[in-house]
UniProtKB/TrEMBL annotation:
This is ABC transporter ATP-binding protein. Keywords: ATP-binding, Nucleotide-binding, Transport. The keyword Plastid does not apply. Residues 59-289 form the ABC transporter domain. The lineage of its organism: Bacteria, Pseudomonadati, Pseudomonadota, Gammaproteobacteria, Pseudomonadales. It comes from Metapseudomonas lalkuanensis.
Length: 491
């Protein structure tokens, strides 16, 4: 099924989702704003192909200038051009879940709107192979004077799903949205969370090939987000494609197998989630000249290969064939994190982060079942009061497995003088199974206006846990799992 429609004739509420089947593309200069079927010659696995994409907005310094420009008999120009996208190129394969990161105003929404077909580019080419369902501006796709139920049918119409087919999905949509009696109320009385629930539910249940989500999940409560993520997981497993804009590194880490960093209308990094998030965090935490330096650095190292991305949900090693036991503790020189994010020092610096055996040998290849020390030093640059320290061990996807804060509130270290260096040692049993892990560390103290980090490093240390042959566990952590099979028939 292919829908041809004209952007100029969109009702306002089409913004929230666009839908069309088959190949379509929109290119510059568009003969009209029609989305049309086109012959994509590239591999079938490429579902979104973008090249040289530019978008310029007209910016008027005063509202009246827009009118003046429209009515000026001498056709004088009253606006300035602002380039929101400056030659973006991307190729997205079927089954990829791509996170789009970037600071406010970097061009993420503009990009998604163009891919969804609700905004026209100024130049460049976008090809989309498959049906698209997009959750763009929250609430924008709803007719405020109609009830939630009526809006579900409306959303179906806008996505090309006939009323009969929509009726079949209705119960599921309503159940997933879970907004109770509000489903019968006019949507103008909805909270942003209710809009998010209904919009997400509709978008996911119309069964698109490509789902585009622009921050829509950020307004939902934690339980709803969890529900959405598991639905998206189902969606992903069925080989569909997702484009997700989020300011939440956790959401991108949890969901995506590739991330793209956009800054000032340009793609700065495109590749494995961890590396891209590291670039993003470095960029948003830097200011002025330092920002420029970091930006140039990211651009220079831009070639992060998507192929290098670890497969999403690469399982804890147990699901993979067992290898020989390798119970040797080692320090592997090449095993260093590339994704380290060091926050600016605010009065202290963390140094020498490492894992040691109990007899003081530095290691980064650990053995399951043994006890280790996670150690770092802190150089204090100013008098610091009520000091405490933090640590975390995470999977490659960023899931926290073990975290600590020491000392506890009330027992914080009262004072450490400027120029002093102290060490913190955390001891832990390695209950982790074969795999690669990362650590965080931080130091906090009381500052004007509350408690804050004096220094913090994400992915400060990287380590592996060696494989072992006798395991029956299938996840990251072994809580002492045993099993017994009884030959006796149970009556
Ligand atoms: N209709 C418009 N007219 C003029 N400028 C616009 C328009 N829409 C967006 N812009 C500008 O284009 C730039 C990119 O906007 P966009 O909404 O794509 O950014 P974003 O990365 O999604 O930001 P955020 O994270 O804040 O949602 C911004 O500087 C924004 O002010």
């Amino acid at each position: 099924m292919v829908f041809l429609f004209r952007l100029g004739s969109y009702p306002r509420f089409l913004d929230v989702g666009s839908y069309c089947r088959g190949y379509w593309c929109h290119r510059f200069p568009p003969a009209s704003t029609t989305l049309c079927r086109c012959n994509m010659t590239s591999s079938d696995d490429v579902v979104i192909s973008i090249s040289g994409l530019r978008k310029s907005y007209k910016v008027y310094s005063k509202n009246i200038d827009r009118l003046k420009e429209a009515l000026d008999p001498r056709r004088r120009i009253y606006h300035k051009e602002f380039d929101a996208l400056k030659g973006v190129g991307l190729s997205i394969q079927r089954g990829e879940i791509v996170g789009i990161l970037g600071s406010n105003g970097s061009g993420k929404s503009t990009l998604l709107k163009i891919v969804a077909g609700v905004l026209r580019q100024s130049a460049g080419k976008v090809k989309v192979n498959g049906s698209v369902s997009a959750l763009l501006e929250l609430g924008a796709g709803f007719n405020p004077e109609q009830s939630g139920l009526e809006n579900i049918y409306l959303a179906g119409v806008l996505r090309g799903v006939p009323r009969k087919a929509m009726s079949k999905k209705l119960d599921e949509i309503v159940e997933f949205a879970d907004i109770g009696e509000f489903i019968h109320q006019k949507t103008k009385f909805y909270s942003s969370g209710m809009f998010a629930r209904l919009a997400f539910s509709v978008s996911i249940h119309v069964d698109p090939d490509i789902l585009i989500i622009d921050e829509a999940l950020s307004v939902g409560d934690a339980a709803f987000k969890r529900k959405c993520f598991s639905k998206l997981e189902e969606f992903r497993k069925s080989g569909k494609t997702i484009l997700l804009v989020s300011h939440s590194e956790a959401a991108i880490t949890e969901m995506c197998n590739r991330a793209v960093l956009i800054d000032r209308g340009e793609v700065l990094a495109d590749g494995p989630v961890k590396e891209t998030i590291a670039c993003y965090l470095k960029l948003i935490n830097a200011k002025g000249e330092k920002r420029k330096e970091i930006r140039d650095g990211i651009v220079a190292g831009q070639a992060i290969s998507p192929a290098a991305s670890p497969p999403k949900n690469s399982t804890p090693a147990a699901a993979q064939p067992q290898r020989a036991v390798d119970a040797e503790e080692l320090f592997l020189e090449g095993l260093r994190p590339k994704s380290t994010v060091e926050y600016p020092s605010e009065g202290a610096r963390l140094l020498n982060v490492r894992i040691e055996t109990l007899d003081g040998r530095r290691v980064n290849r650990l053995v399951h079942g043994k006890r280790y020390r996670y150690v770092y030093e802190i150089e204090f640059h100013c008098l610091s009061q009520n000091v405490s320290f933090g640590m975390m061990i995470k999977t490659t996807q960023g899931t926290a497995l073990c975290g600590g804060s020491y000392p506890q509130k009330g027992a914080w270290i009262r004072e450490v003088g400027a120029g002093e260096v102290r060490a913190v040692t955390w001891e832990f049993d390695c209950l982790l199974e074969e795999g690669t892990y990362f650590t965080n560390c931080g130091v906090m103290a009381d500052r004007e206006g509350g408690r804050s980090y004096l220094h913090r490093i994400l992915d400060a240390y990287m380590f592996q846990v060696a494989p072992r042959a006798d395991r029956i566990t299938t996840a990251w952590v072994n809580l002492g799992l045993t099993a017994r099979y009884d030959e006796k028939v149970v009556t």
